[in-house]
Specification:
By secondary structure, this protein is of the alpha/beta class. Helices cover 43% and strands 11% of the residues. The chain starts with a strand and ends in a 6-residue tail after the last helix.
Length: 390
């Protein structure tokens, strides 16, 4: 049987991106199917559209804020030698995990080479993460526009990320979505968008990371804690000072130290001095360890929330974006908390420390909900991947 090509964001130095890509490989291994993760360095390298037009579209969707965040990091690296060193330490941790963990295809330099290589695969599976966000759709990579007709195209737990597709991308979305033989997405809001665009009914499935238990994830991490003593684990990607202030109040009331991973999406000056420990030699394996051994977890990250649930932690999730922001991806966290019945873990500006510290959580019902969704998700995969040519 020809291998299945996995089209994921494994190369992005983000804990959630790498772990969901690794989980997608875990799925193939559990199902006993041959596979390769398609080697990629930057999806924009395979884009056919004029890059100037692409830049204008990114401005229209409000992506300039994300670009500004990256520029802040580069600026800080140039003027702060210690920060630059720490940044490189974390990059090395990500590279080490990627080099040791992924089973990659030959690397293609051009879109034409990708299309030629596609004949070596029985199917292509895209998932998961926010691979169908407006900027990624423009690349044409995660939408499999480079895969010829006649080769099976499958979307598993792919996320659109935003609530509405911009007007200039409606036709493009409809066209690439109709080429997929099977589609199952991560959020109900994404399924509703697909139905609106194509008329197709699409089911919700679990993010790949949730298809496995906390115990399944122990195989890539050490059992001993990475830091001594009890602590609050903090993983906040957004620049929202009031959230740090809230966590500081929790620290004062509990006496627990704060361990925080900082400056992932942008350099946030107010984070300096916020945590008692701010480690940088942290790859995806260490990320899981810090979550698993924490007393409390505070985050605005989807995947940090996922692993907090798998490890039955007292976790609390903030919104990273304001609801009216175009680039807001809050819907994926809302969907996660709805699926698990943990809506009360959502933090707002009205939350108070006493309420947070006194909040209990019945994870037994969470397990029942996840088990049902796991069965449904694997049933979808068995259907989508069944009967492939040998």
């Amino acid at each position: 049987m020809k291998p299945i090509g996995l089209v994921t964001c494994y190369f992005h130095h983000n804990y959630g991106s790498m772990l969901q890509a690794y989980a997608t490989e875990m799925i193939m291994q559990r199902m006993g199917l041959p596979f390769q993760t398609i080697a990629c360095k930057a999806p924009i390298d395979y884009m056919q559209e004029n890059k100037l037009i692409y830049a204008v579209k990114k401005l229209l969707i409000g992506d300039w804020k994300m670009r500004l965040g990256k520029m802040k990091i580069e600026h800080e690296k140039k003027k702060n030698h210690l920060f630059a060193k720490n940044w490189e330490t974390r990059n090395q941790a990500f590279n080490k995990f990627a080099d040791e963990s992924f089973h990659l295809s030959p690397f293609c330099k051009t879109r034409a080479e990708l299309t030629a290589m596609a004949a070596n695969y029985s199917a292509f599976l895209v998932g998961s993460d926010q691979l169908w966000r407006t900027d990624s759709v423009e690349h044409g990579y995660y939408t499999l526009e480079w895969v010829p007709d006649g080769i099976r195209k499958i979307a598993y737990s792919t996320s659109i990320g935003v609530k509405e597709v911009p007007w200039f991308q409606v036709k493009k979305n409809r066209r690439f979505m109709n080429r997929f033989d099977f589609m199952a997405l991560r959020e109900q809001s994404a399924c509703d968008l697909v139905h609106k665009l194509t008329g197709r009914d699409v089911q919700v499935v679990l993010d790949p990371t949730l298809l496995f238990t906390g115990n399944d994830w122990m195989k890539i991490q050490r059992s001993e804690p990475l830091t001594e003593g009890k602590y609050i684990f903090c993983y906040l990607l957004g620049n929202n000072p009031w959230q740090r202030d809230f966590i500081w109040k929790v620290k004062q009331q509990t006496g627990l130290k704060i361990v925080a991973l900082q400056h992932l999406d942008e350099y946030i000056p107010s984070d300096e001095g916020f945590a008692d420990e701010a480690p940088y030699n942290v790859g995806p394996c260490e990320f899981l360890n810090y979550i698993r051994n924490a007393e409390f977890v505070f985050t605005d990250s989807f995947h940090c929330s996922v692993f907090s649930i798998l490890y039955k932690k007292q976790f609390f999730t903030f919104s990273r974006f304001n609801e009216n922001e175009r680039q807001s991806t809050n819907t994926r966290i809302d969907n996660l908390l709805n699926i698990t019945g943990l809506q009360q873990r959502r933090m707002t500006a009205d939350s108070n420390v006493e309420g947070v510290l006194g909040m209990s959580c019945d994870f037994s019902r969470v397990g029942e909900r996840l088990d049902a969704m796991r069965r449904s998700s694997f049933n979808y995969l068995e259907t989508a991947l069944g009967g492939l040519p040998r």
